[in-house]
Design brief:
8-stranded antiparallel sheet; mainly beta
Length: about 800
């Protein structure tokens, strides 16, 4: 029984040599551990679970006659051995079976002539994988024929009919990768049985065990290798797809070049040249090209038809309306300095421009009510880290009218897509102003911008040191059953929003994009490796690069997983595939925002926490925490002349402090559409714990949480029927009076105040001084002026004076 068309076999192609010495008992001396993944760069721990296939051949002469032949073999974890298509035997069906090699007598199985050795090797768990084999045949005159595994053998991760047979054409199979000589770690020296068993044992238990292991690996969220396979009979090809060609994206080289191009890693950080990006500072689609193509029918042999040509400009991020009639695309047409949103009929025609102005409008997607959500720089701010234009989400009508902002960020919101439940899923780059965390995550909001939740992101707990650029995600693809596929570090990850990270499925594939099909399968682009020459002074060297030239279909519900190629580009890389056809329209969600009814009043919303002490950060001084300080961030509207590397920061305003109720709850009314951050402080205002993400509320929204890091799969325990903070009106913290303002974000990496949030709040004050009209006023004079405000000013000035006096830490402010 075979594993199936999606599993790859590696056939060992061994070099042959003749010797005249007497044959000793077979050993692995001179053999190498091999596998089929040259891209590991020596990191065996990064190998996925999966199956590989090896081929080799040897010639047995007519004369002198064959006297004896044996083979010793093992694989981490399982294997099946074939000679000319006939099964010789298999390993034990145990993950630890590699520690005891198999030894078979092949004398009765060999005949003079060409003999093909085929080996199916299975890595049942992510991590180290390898195959080692040595064949020794002794002739009647004492000569020996030896085949030992090395990097000359051929291998494949793709199953093929009759791959074990001598007449199979393996010319397109690449060479195997040597992962270590015999004796290398982690395997060391493997025990060899003292007596050879007759070859020709029954097989089948390894293939059954391998299938069960791969199914379990998928269920448990382990990385499972995806192989390329030929289309099976009755394969369902998509009706039509569109994709972007004439790729002109800005990439950093896949391999380090040793020249100035490597510096692009500061602003261009898309692993394996895909649409996964933990940081991307350019206000354009993640990938761009100059031409949009239609492939109909979407199957091998069909020729793509040009739908749209951007001329000297660029286009990207295409999407399709739910009725299948329109394609939305972001395009800077024929030299236009800004990207705008266009739409055109799916069968082609003149594009209709929907947005305009000196802004970049990218990543359009249709909402269930017919409006279009997109990413734009028209929010008018500069991001606080590297200082490029910030990007937030906007909506317009199908004709371009009714422009409205959904998110009000000072960071990056990208690639919105609509979930099956009607919410908008998008990529948020969370570059927090203390520079304690730079990460990307998949965030979801209602179509009015309310009820934002992080759906997919790292779950490392409270320690942020290892989170810098750690979670790779991109190209979100909502599936019709409510799950989401997206690009990740392993390749493609599939999961259900709100479920713990252990429920995610990881498919090990070098994918450049991913998009959902209506039947639950996925479109994806895959690369081929191409050599490129890198100039180093007068010398040149060759490195391997990736070129995404294949478009395929992946079924994540089939084990083992495999991709079927439906199109191979003859004209260079392609990207951003989308399905062209009608899809189920998601749910239409009700509006949750409520604009203020008082003329001239600033819109506000409410933030509520049931228990701030429900957190994984148990090292904080929680017995000392008495209140929550609320901070608001104001994005910069001017840009540094050195924005490429500077930490520009933002203006941070101290809105006020709310006492923490005995049960850990608090509720505050804060300005709407404003980035908000929180600090847990002690009775003297010293920070014990800093919240490390921006929070937002829309006008009239009442947004709550159960506690920091608390699991979303369970409700917290309640000491009282109604949390204490909800028994009174929320505390109004609107930054009234003259609140303390300071520069958020450290001025430089590894600077004096690096990662010292509360200290920087004190030394980088914008309005700490200046209350006295005397230009020669001392610190004591300024404290005295604030004390006067504290005692005689209006309510707002008294509150802000008290907050600012806390910065000075002068006991004179306490009075007699």
């Amino acid at each position: 029984m075979r594993l199936g068309p999606a599993l790859a076999f590696i056939l060992v192609l061994a070099s042959c040599c003749l010797a005249t010495a007497q044959s000793p008992l077979p050993t692995f001396d001179g053999a190498q551990w091999i596998w089929s993944s040259p891209e590991t760069d020596g990191d065996l721990g990064s190998l996925s679970a999966g199956v590989s296939y090896f081929r080799s051949e040897v010639t047995i002469p007519e004369s002198p006659a064959l006297k004896s032949a044996e083979v010793v073999i093992t694989a981490d974890n399982l294997f099946v051995l074939y000679l000319n298509g006939r099964a010789v035997g298999e390993s034990e069906a145990s993950n630890s079976a590699w520690g005891q090699a198999k030894r078979w007598d092949l004398t009765g199985l060999l005949v003079p002539g060409r003999t093909v050795v085929g080996i199916e090797a299975v890595n049942t768990l992510p991590g180290p994988a390898g195959l080692i084999v040595k064949f020794v045949a002794e002739l009647a005159d004492g000569q020996r024929i030896v085949l030992a595994s090395d990097a000359h053998w051929k291998c494949s991760q793709r199953d093929a009919a009759n791959w074990q047979q001598p007449d199979f054409d393996d010319q397109k199979w690449p060479p195997a990768s040597s992962v270590g000589a015999y004796g290398a770690r982690p395997w060391g020296h493997v025990a060899i049985p003292p007596v050879a068993q007759p070859g020709g044992e029954p097989v089948g238990k390894v293939q059954k065990a391998a299938m069960e292991a791969l199914e379990q690996a998928v269920r448990q969220g382990q990385v499972v290798a995806v192989t390329e396979e030929a289309p099976p009979e009755n394969f369902q090809w998509p009706d039509a797809v569109a994709f972007v060609g004439d790729d002109c994206s800005l990439y950093r080289p896949y391999s380090n070049t040793g020249n100035s191009y490597d510096s692009l890693s500061v602003t261009i950080f898309n692993p394996r040249k895909s649409r996964t990006f933990p940081e991307h500072d350019l206000p354009a689609p993640m990938k761009v090209g100059r031409k949009l193509y239609l492939l109909k029918p979407a199957r091998p042999g069909a020729q793509p038809r040009l739908l749209l040509d951007a001329g000297r400009g660029g286009l990207g991020s295409p999407s399709v309306s739910f009725d299948g009639r329109w394609i939305y695309v972001s395009m800077a047409y024929d030299g236009d300095p800004f990207f705008h949103i266009y739409r055109l009929p799916t069968e082609g025609g003149s594009p209709q421009q929907l947005t305009d102005g000196p802004f970049h409008d990218i990543d359009p997607a249709e909402l269930p009510d017919g409006r279009v959500v997109f990413t734009s720089t028209r929010i008018g701010r500069f991001e606080e880290y590297h200082n490029p234009p910030a990007r937030s989400l906007f909506v317009i009508g199908a004709d371009g009218s009714g422009l409205r902002a959904l998110t009000h960020t000072i960071i990056f919101d990208n690639e919105p897509e609509v979930l099956a439940d009607g919410r908008i899923l998008f990529i948020r780059s969370d570059n927090f102003f203390d520079r304690g965390k730079v990460e990307t995550l998949l965030h979801a909001i209602h179509p009015d911008g309310t009820r934002g939740y992080t759906e997919f992101g790292l779950d490392n707990g409270p320690e942020y040191g290892g989170r810098l650029r750690a979670y790779l995600c991109g190209s979100p693809a909502p599936m019709p059953d409510g799950r989401v596929a997206f690009l990740s570090g392993p390749g493609i990850t599939v999961g259900r929003p709100g479920f713990p990270a252990s429920h995610l499925q990881h498919f090990g594939i070098e994918a450049g994009d991913v998009a959902a099909l209506p039947d639950g399968r996925l479109l994806c682009t895959t690369p081929r490796r191409v050599p490129i020459e890198i100039a180093e002074g007068k010398e040149k060297r060759t490195v391997q690069d990736l070129s995404y030239e294949k478009l395929g279909v992946l079924n994540p519900g089939v084990v083992p997983p495999a991709v079927v190629v439906l199109f191979e580009s003859p004209n260079g890389p392609i990207h951003s595939p989308v399905f062209l056809g009608p899809r189920t329209r998601p749910l239409l969600l009700a509006e949750n925002t409520r604009q203020t009814t008082v003329e001239g009043a600033r819109p506000t919303g409410v933030l509520y926490c049931q228990n701030a002490r429900l957190t994984k950060n148990t090292t904080a001084g929680w017995p000392h925490v008495r209140a929550i300080r609320v901070l608001a961030g104001t994005g910069l509207t001017t840009r540094s002349s050195h924005s490429y590397i500077v930490h520009a920061g933002n203006e941070t305003v101290e809105l006020g402090t709310v006492p923490l109720a005995p049960d850990g709850s608090f509720a505050v009314e804060v300005p709407a559409d404003t980035p908000i951050a929180l600090q847990a402080v002690d009775a003297e205002g010293r920070s014990e714990l800093n919240e490390m993400s921006w929070i937002y509320v829309r006008p009239g929204e009442r947004r709550g949480c159960v506690g920091c890091h608390h699991t979303r799969q369970g409700a917290p325990l309640c000491e009282t029927a109604i949390p204490l903070a909800l028994k009174t009106a929320p505390v109004r913290l609107l930054g009234e009076g003259r609140p303390h303002r300071f520069r958020g974000n450290n001025a430089a990496v590894t600077g004096l105040m690096e990662l010292q949030f509360d200290r920087y709040r004190e030394v980088a004050g914008i309005d700490r001084h200046g209350e006295s009209s005397d230009p020669l006023a001392t610190g004591a004079d300024e404290v005295a002026a604030l004390v006067d405000q504290l005692r005689a000013g209006g309510p707002a000035l008294r509150i802000s004076a008290a907050q600012r006096l806390a910065i000075f830490r002068d006991p004179a402010a306490a009075g007699p």
